[in-house]
Amino acid sequence: MASVLVVEDDQFVRSALIRHLTEASHTVRSVGTALEALREVAHIRFDVVILDLGLPDLDGAEALKMLRSITDVPVIIATARDDENEIVRLLNDGADDYLTKPFSVEHLSARMAAVLRRSRAAGTDAPPPRAIQVGGLSIDPLRRQAELDGEVLDLTRREFDLLAFLAGRPGVVVARKELLAEVWQQSYGDDQTIDVHLSWLRRKLGETAARPRYLHTLRGVGVKLEPPVAGAPATGRAGSGRPGVEPPA
Predict the structure, then answer these.
(1) Reported pTM
(2) What's the Cα-to-Cα distance from 176 to each of 36, 207, 222, rounded to whole Å?
(3) Cis (ω within 30 of 0) for the bond into 129?
(4) pLDDT by residue (tens digit) across 29-74?
(5) Main-chain dihedrals φ then ψ at residue 123, nearest 5 degrees
(6) Which residues pair with 129 in a beta bridge?
(7) 100: β partners
(8) What kind and span of H or E run contains 110?
(9) 4 touches 47 (CB < 8 A)
């Protein structure tokens, strides 16, 4: 049994979801706007959120970003939109899965079960992860904070996950397929997704693909993170802007 928040403004769809989930022994709360959803997750701990994109007060894509700023609860997008680029953006912005309307209750149940399995596996009792130190980089998984030479880095959720995953394997070349599976929780995807996030990370680490310090891309193989060579110059950090994608090194 799971605690589920349904965010859906269509009363017919909303009622059908509530009925199905309740019959499956889940505890269900429902709202019809993004702001109501934000209030709910701020005060109640849910196991999963089912989020419609076509909300009356705020587009669901923006609502997802706001949800991700306050909670790591798994989010399944329920949408009538089937544009692949938008789906990729949603997954990169923190969605855990998506369903294209119309979908069957059996399909929803299967997706929910898969998301909940991943979430519960990640939350099993284990020793608290220790801070990771790689050169001047310090990454604290518990606080979800990264510092470079004592200065806190302004990272998005996905940027932090990517940096922490690579830093936990210093000097090891990680294949792109593994990054998609472990960081994005996807079995498929576009290499550009990884290139974009690597480009953003490089900018914040004060480097470029042409002049790497920590992040090194091996064409056709994968990516590795390792301490910079002594005396290697930095290009200077430039805040949290979103530059274009740099070509892989």
Answers:
(1) 0.52
(2) 38, 20, 5
(3) no
(4) 999 999 999 989 888 888 899 999 889 998 888 889 888 878 888 9
(5) -100, 10
(6) none
(7) 79
(8) helix 105-122
(9) yes
